[in-house]
């Protein structure tokens, strides 16, 4: 509040210097709209048909690749975890949840309108509210996969205490829930299931041939996601042949390891420090 008043006073002084009327200046400060780093990304994900278009395209591609993968017994999306002798195993796919299957833009919108940043406390409250909605195309694709005899596993960094609410939220939309197999592999559900997902991929790959891996964050595909932008680019280049085949990406301009790479994934840094690092990472025209 004090900072706002100081800004307003500064604007009045500046307007006087420039010979503007104080009333015009007062009008502009009264209509000052709070800024938030996530406004455009959240608006795009929540309101744009363009986001629906990209999500539906990703799932349409996944449907094509699913048929290819079913027909080719050598096909696997997780060669590092799959081992050998997997050709005869029953088929499965691995899918991330947040911003891959579940649209949490209402949480992002709440953060944006209330000047907040992510916290475990508000995130848990949001998950327990069970108001996430489907990412466009996800319900149809996952039901289609299930209909083709493919087991759908969800590897999510929602923690184990959020599993019941997550299942209830998803049941409303008709997502495959696994029947008598636990297909919800949540973070820290077992001691070796950390936020890096390879141990959970290995858990699925032991009993199934994994056809596809679908996610919005590099960490959904590889544990080598927490490096610098250059490190991440190297890993991406090494896996280029998998992109759009075994690995399908959804767009998430709101958050992810791409966003924390400029500030070294150090969330203890203050918001200003994080923003300064992101600005410094931009490759900009010199304006000439
Ligand atoms: Mg995600």
Residue share in β-strands: 5-15%
Note the main sheet.
5 strands, parallel
- Helix count from the secondary structure assignment: 13
Order of helices and strands: HHHHHEEHHEHEHEHEHEHH
Question: In total, how many beta strands?
Answer: 7
Q: What CATH architecture would you give?
A: 3-Layer(aba) Sandwich
Relevant CATH superfamily = HAD superfamily/HAD-like
What would you report as the Rg, rounded to the nearest angstrom?
Answer: 22 Å
Structural domain tally: 1
CATH topology-level name: Rossmann fold
Shape from CA axes?
globular
Could you walk me through the main structural features you see in this protein, from its secondary elements to its overall organization?
The protein is an alpha/beta fold and 288 residues long. The protein has a single domain, classed as Rossmann fold. Helices cover 46% and strands 11% of the residues. It contains 13 helices and seven strands. The strands form two sheets. It has a five-stranded parallel β-sheet with strand order 5-4-1-6-7, with helices on both faces. Strands 2-3 form a two-stranded antiparallel ribbon. Strand 4, helix 9 and strand 5 form a beta-alpha-beta unit. Helix 3 runs antiparallel to helix 6 and helix 4 runs parallel beside helix 8. The longest helix is centred in the first third of the chain and has 23 residues. Magnesium ion (MG) binds next to loops.
